[in-house]
Design goal:
mainly alpha; Rossmann fold; Arc Repressor Mutant, subunit A; 20 helices; binds glutamic acid
């Protein structure tokens, strides 16, 4: 089946790892089926929606390589919501209600106090025309609720959760429009899904009861509901919903040197029965992406996993993929030499300084200085100067292991460890190598 999916963020903040995951999975579903992925900006809340967040959402998705085939904005579709609203109201599926927040809160408390679920009692349906007129004469403007049909259970085959079933009488008729005429999420989203031909809705399990309500809205609008899937929420590694995850986004990842491919590799598989692996090839991730592998338990996000995957992805990155981000002067051989020693691309410079210098050498013992004098005299230049130098020195001095290699590494790089010397020495170059050995020898 060719899927049309959508990712529908409200531009009231930056994307966080939880909604990045939702975006990714919807993009993957569409890609995998050769369908369309829609970015829908849910900006009906004019007071809280900000243009800077719309831009940030676009930038973050672009950085992640999650490209939308289409972009839609709810604020440009208000006439569509109005039309749907009028039709549903005329069909008797929308009614006015006048309760204040305090009154509703009190009703909730009374029900909870009696051990009952806090379902709206439909008090507004008992109002007469005269009651309503009196309310409005008092200056109370109505808000609007969608009237659920209590006739049949609501049922769907959820792509992750299996058969889902709700008794509509156990749900409150949702408020869909405020007294000031502004929209709540429920109806506009359904209208959009119909108008935009969305065939598959994948979102977090916090939306499960919304789905039950929206299925009735689809039916009330004579539209076939899309297929639904609700994935388990993302939690911190300690297993709880974490505040930190709610604010962890692309800017923080970028600052830490996390590659988009590491995030994609992790989030594609987290919470599924497939192993989380450092797979940089999206096609492989797409080929193995399957909702039926998603578990019902919360998916645990662990920074240590992300870092492990990131390091492995950096270690396998081809020069071409990274060359525009490297310090001036690093060619393929340079990248290859330092690549195994870094865990983020940003660390390249620290190792590259060993090639460009200046370096700071340690104090050498008299014995090592003599050895380094010998090394300076022995050094010859070839395709493989390190191997030639160390083999010759081994024969000449009888040194081996650490005693053979460490003073040379220290003299040539100023460090006790680092990239493979066989790769580094040709990059340092003959002249500079001679200068460094001579200086170390005193
Ligand atoms: N704007 C809604 C949200 O961010 C969209 C939910 C949906 O996917 O339908 O929760």
């Amino acid at each position: 089946m060719i899927s049309t999916t959508r990712f529908a963020p409200s531009p009231t903040g930056r994307l966080h790892v939880g909604n990045i995951r939702t975006a990714l999975h919807n993009w993957m579903l569409a890609q995998k089926s050769g369908g369309q992925f829609i970015l829908r900006i849910d900006d009906t809340d004019a007071a809280r929606s900000k243009e800077e967040y719309v831009d940030a959402i676009r930038e973050d998705l672009a950085w992640l390589g999650i490209t939308a085939d289409r972009e839609e904005r709810q604020s440009e579709r208000l006439d569509r919501y109005e039309a749907a609203f009028n039709a549903l109201r005329d069909a008797g599926r929308i009614y006015r209600a006048y309760e204040t927040q305090q009154e509703l809160e009190l009703k909730r408390k009374v029900l909870l106090g009696r051990g009952l679920p806090p379902i709206y009692d439909r008090g507004a349906l008992d109002l007469t025309d005269a009651d309503r007129a009196a309310k409005e004469a008092e200056g109370v403007q109505p808000h609007w609720r969608f009237k659920l049909d209590h006739g049949e259970p609501i049922q769907w085959e959820d792509g992750v959760r299996g058969t889902a079933k709700f008794d509509p009488a156990q749900l409150s008729d949702p408020v869909i429009r405020r007294a000031d005429g502004s929209w709540l999420y429920m109806l506009p989203s359904t209208v959009d899904d119909v108008d935009m031909g969305v065939t598959q809705v994948l979102r977090g399990e916090d939306h499960v009861s919304n789905t039950a309500v929206q299925i009735q809205m689809f039916t009330a609008m004579d539209a076939a509901p899309p297929s639904f899937a609700h994935e388990a929420l993302l939690v911190g590694k300690e297993g709880k919903l974490s505040k930190r995850l709610g604010s962890l986004g692309c800017d923080a990842f970028r600052e830490r040197g996390i590659e988009p491919e590491a995030i994609i590799a992790l989030l594609s598989r987290l919470g599924t029965s497939k192993p989380v692996e450092p797979i940089a090839d999206r096609q492989v991730l797409l080929d193995t992406f399957d909702l039926s592998t998603f578990g019902r338990a919360p998916a645990k996000f662990d920074d240590a996993d992300l870092e492990r995957i990131n390091t492995a992805i950096v270690h396998a990155m081809p020069f071409d993929a990274v060359k525009d981000r490297l310090p001036e002067g690093i060619d393929e051989a340079g990248w290859h030499a330092v690549q195994p020693n870094i865990s983020t691309v940003g660390e390249v410079g620290e190792w590259w300084r060993l090639v460009t210098g200046p370096i700071e050498q340690p104090e050498f013992s008299e014995e090592d200085r003599a050895y380094l004098t010998e090394a300076a005299q022995t050094l010859t230049w070839s395709d493989d100067p390190w191997n030639a130098l160390t083999s010759a020195l081994k024969d000449k001095t009888g040194r081996k292991g650490k005693g053979l290699f460490l003073p040379l590494r220290q003299a040539l790089t100023g460090m006790n460890h680092g990239p493979d010397m066989g790769e580094l020495l040709p990059l340092i170059g003959e002249n500079e190598a001679r200068v460094r050995l001579a200086r170390a020898a005193g």
